[in-house]
Design a protein that fits this description.
Length: 340
């Protein structure tokens, strides 16, 4: 007997509601069935991949799209038929995947695919998310794109094999993708905006609760990327995130803000206690050591701290903390500064 998972506090949505939700998303979304036929795509997908309307007809196959891309040079030099066939071969494996692809026009896309299973556990297709990370790559050299809002579900779109329970399980999984940074496991920026809004509202109602913010980045992180490559840079980011999880409280909202920038929101804490936390964490980073080729690295961070003021928006709070961070940079790095 196949075990069916149970779900709590989930209301069934209509097909129209789910389709409209995915059309509103700023990322491209596709759902492809077992025969590699496109069952759904949103407008953002066509815009990001620059597919003309005439090719996106009902029943279009993944092979048609691969061949179209190959012929216009998206996969680089080579025979278009061979390039399309190789991608179809990989797709037929129905394996989860995440990779970054640079298009011929310079656009950089982060592509994340997850397999859709029927209640018996058989692969019946996959859902893929396409995100334009060109700006992040230009500013941070190697910024994995996982901080786009993905708090949506997808509809079975006439795939009768997918039960309602299986669909809701996949929805839950993709929500986790939306709120967690895939490289570090910290909260994403988009989760931060929702969670911190609630913390600010709590502070506005009760001034005694207090709310402090710590922001930091890794000193000379670009030099680390240049010397050790992006894989080395990723190792450093994961290590810093692990230290942050070890030193922060369960109630803290620890966020990878972008690139090598991080933020920690601490409820019930003022700037004095937050400064003390910042000093402890700065010392932990400075004394830590990595293994292998990175063993000679001496890591340090620059930290800015600000306490929320009644009536202050999250944007203004972040701006003050950011100003304190840059003051720490000007003070010689590897130090903690409090906002004015």
């Amino acid at each position: 007997m196949t075990h069916q998972p149970t779900y709590n506090n989930i209301s069934q949505l209509s097909t129209i509601e789910l389709v409209e939700a995915m059309q509103c998303m700023p990322v491209g979304v596709t759902i492809i069935d077992r025969s590699l036929k496109m069952r759904f795509w949103n407008d953002a997908f066509c815009r990001l991949l620059d597919f003309p309307q005439e090719i996106m007809h009902a029943g279009v196959t993944l092979h048609e799209l691969f061949l179209f891309n190959a012929k216009r040079g998206d996969y680089g030099p080579g025979d278009p038929d061979d390039q399309a066939k190789e991608r179809i071969r990989l797709s037929m494996m129905f394996q989860p995947h995440q990779f970054t692809r640079t298009r011929a026009d310079g656009t950089i896309l982060d592509i994340t695919g997850r397999v859709i299973h029927d209640p018996a556990g058989q692969a019946i297709g996959f859902v893929t998310i396409y995100q334009d990370v060109t700006r992040e790559h230009q500013h941070a050299q190697h910024l994995l794109a996982a901080n786009k809002e993905l708090q949506v579900a997808y509809d079975d779109l006439r795939l009768a094999q997918i039960s309602y329970a299986a669909m809701e399980e996949d929805r839950r999984r993709y929500y986790q993708l939306a709120v967690r940074d895939p490289l570090t496991g910290l909260f994403s920026r988009y989760y931060m905006e929702d969670a911190v809004a609630r913390l600010i509202e709590l502070h506005e109602r009760d001034e005694t609760t207090r709310l402090a913010l710590l922001v930091f980045d890794i000193d000379r992180f670009k030099d680390i990327n240049d010397a050790h490559g992006h894989l080395g840079g990723d190792t450093v980011l994961r290590h810093i995130a692990l230290l942050l999880k070890q030193h922060s409280r369960r109630a803290d909202v620890a966020v990878r803000f972008g690139g090598d920038e991080f933020a920690v929101f601490q409820s019930g804490v003022g700037d004095r206690e937050c400064m003390a936390f910042g000093e402890r964490f700065r010392e932990a980073v400075y004394t830590t050591r990595l293994d292998g080729e990175l063993s000679e690295l001496r890591l340090s961070i620059s930290v800015g701290v600000a306490e929320h003021r009644i009536g202050e928006s999250m944007t203004d709070l972040l701006s003050r903390a950011d100003a304190a961070l840059y003051a720490a940079k000007r003070a010689g790095r590897n130090c903690v500064q409090k906002a004015a």
